[in-house]
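Team,

Forwarding the record for the chain on the shared tracking sheet. I've put the sequence and predicted structure together so nobody has to dig through attachments.
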Amino acid sequence: MIDVELVEEAPGGGRVPKSVSNMVERARALPVPVLAVAALILVGGSGGAILYGDDIMVWIRGEPDYELIEFDAEQARIYAQSLVDAGHPEWEGRLSGTVEEENAAAAIKFNFSSMGIPATLEDFDVPMFVIGNDPALSMCTPGGIGNIFGGPTPCSIADVNRDIVEFTHREDYVIQGYSGSSSIQYVDDITVIDLGTGNESADWASAANEVGLVWLKPETEGNTALFQRGADNDLAGLILINDRQNCDELVSDDCVPYFKSVEISSIDPIPEDLGFIMVSRSVGQAIVDEVINGDARLQFITDVNNQGTATIYVPCGIIEGQTDSLIIFGAHHDTVYNGQGAVDDTSGVATLQEIARQFGLLESQLGTPKHTIYFCTWGGEEEGLWGSTEWVDKHRTMLADNLRLYVNLDMNHVDAERNSGVTMFGNNKADVDHIRGVASVFSSAYPELADKYPISIHMQSSTAMPYNSDHAPFVYNLDDEDGPDKYYGRAIVCYGSGSTEYHTYLDTMERFNEESLMVSGIIYGSLVRYLAYGD
């Protein structure tokens, strides 16, 4: 039997012999360039201890010395307001593929250049829906003279006693992603069929050539499944009633309609003549009461071309490093078409620009960073992560060889009144440990902010990382293979809280809280500062 004295715990819970522990103590005094060689020696002589690159370097060096970056919250608000001001003159959003999205991307590129950071602007043609004329939704109750004795057609212009209720676009109803076009007039006397929650057991066939009404409940499936069933059963229109999200929180006794997209890769062909909208709970109930159970007729018009492509944009500010190793900050500059998107994701883009400005100043003070740092904003996120996906595909080789870390900022904003803090997570233990370490320094330096905005940090396995924002292509798309040997990119993500206005017309600058951006801006910016300029 060999007697080995185990005295110290290695990263990950393993143990190493005392002789190796003594080597560690001596190695900690070595210059940084020598540490990598020392790490290899330790791995070879560790007697079976499992030591990995990031862990062993931290183990040898001891606790990292994090320095916090500066962050000007007022400047971040200025960046946010300028993006909101670039929105659609009526609908306020920056829908992907529109002049509003293009102008936003160009303004972001200009801001990078103004910071002294070289910038690029790339464009991609992607499948996209294009909204034409304003949509229309209304009900008409025929007048008293109706169609008696060959009189005028009910609800026609000649029906002078008709009673029309017009619903307000964006407030009462919202077009859904990749909707087609419908043109249903009062005189068509279309039937509206209540399909309940629209599950597979619902009688979708009964709504052929009619308008289907689906109640959005907790058990209701997603837009893609509903849109597919509507297409398979030849519906003339599809109305989704919001009875699940933001109910009684934004408008008393009601649920505000919001935008949701459709996963078009799952639908072939995309139905071009099926209008798809969401209405508020009160509007949906009115349609049930007055149209389904009453004498009113429905007018439902959507003018949407979902058969072509549109050009989306990706501006990037680039600080060249000493190596090709890449760290990328990302946020999406597009919004849903129906609102300002002050939180989703103007807040992330504003934070990213302020971090970029700070790194421009750091470069002038500290010189060239160890890593090349990209600051990119994506178009096409709301309709299917198009910008980040296309950019990753174009630069796949560069990323597969050099990506050190992708940092995603999507709704990293905290509402001042509905405050449940900030959530941070990543798919690599060393990176998550860095987040915890920087957050501790942040809490000491900004105790009031740390108390006001609680920070939740957790580790996700790569396979469990959600596929719901622009980090996803960087995690999943760098390797085409599946199975245990698949390569997953490293990413850290920040989500905020309190955005009940999410994807509605109420996501405006009125509730914007620039102070909350300091939490993720300083913590994630300081983590990258450590990687770029630390020992």
